[in-house]
Design goal:
Elements: H1 3-15, E1 19-30, E2 33-45, E3 51-61, E4 64-66, E5 72-74, H2 80-93, H3 95-118, E6 120-123, E7 127-133, H4 139-154, H5 161-167, E8 170-181, E9 186-198, E10 204-215, H6 220-223
Antiparallel strand pairs: 1-2, 1-10, 2-3, 3-4, 3-5, 6-7, 7-8, 8-9, 9-10
Length: 224
């Protein structure tokens, strides 16, 4: 299978969607104890920008426990003109474009192509599974991958302490699986991350995170 052609068909199909529905589930453990459990049922109209969500979450971190909450929210629509303006702003004022230059550009392309090369494709009867294991990357790409995670953490200093812990993982083991149906629609995305963190007191902690997004697509034959 031509991976580039297949990815192009998937991106083209997803781009044509006007509505996205699904369920996001996340669970994070520290030293085998669950510190975050989250479920988000979401629905987004890609034409108007309207978003509806129903979230259930439980957080037990640094002595703080948040009991499960259920709520629905409809975000204010975001006009296409605003999206276009924000996109242009990002293109012209991105820090990487101002400071990185060609070296940064080629570094990003090298990293992207390395991920594409490591991407595994498994074809089943009605499903194609794209999988990526960070352990399959070359040693220099593993180093770059870890550096990018640390770099992201430094640019999100105001993030919740839970996120900061994952940014500080040494050599994280990351796995990603994407399930795609025969219509080139993404049905499910499963991601796992695990690693060891050393805190300020030199104590070692094991961190594990599992995330899954299941998309629900309307059958076109039923819609017609």
């Amino acid at each position: 299978m031509n991976k580039i052609r297949f990815l192009y068909d998937v991106m083209k199909t997803m781009k044509a969607k006007e509505e996205v529905k699904g369920i996001l589930q996340v669970q994070v453990e520290k030293n085998q104890a669950t510190i975050l459990s989250l479920q988000n049922e979401f629905e987004k109209n890609l034409s108007t920008g309207e978003i509806k969500t129903k979230v259930t979450a439980s957080l037990n971190y640094e002595g703080t426990i948040h009991l499960p909450e259920h709520h629905a929210h409809a975000a204010a629509p975001c006009s296409p003109e605003r999206k276009h303006h924000e996109g242009l702003h990002h293109m012209h004022y991105s820090p990487s474009r101002r400071h990185g230059g060609l070296k940064e550009l080629f570094s990003k392309w090298t990293f992207t192509l390395s991920l594409l090369n490591a991407l595994q494709v498994k074809e089943e009867e009605k499903t194609t599974i794209l999988s990526l294991d960070a352990n399959d990357l070359s040693e220099d790409m593993k180093k770059l991958f870890s550096e990018r995670i640390v770099h992201t953490g430094r640019h999100h200093r105001q993030s919740h302490g839970l996120l900061k812990e994952f940014y500080s993982i040494d050599h994280p083991e990351v796995k990603l699986s994407i399930f795609i149906n025969s219509n080139y629609e993404i049905e499910k995305v499963v991601a796992t991350a695990a690693g060891t963190q050393i805190d300020a007191q030199a104590s070692q902690h094991d961190l594990n995170a599992d995330a899954q997004v299941v998309f629900v697509w309307e059958d076109e034959s039923d819609a017609s």
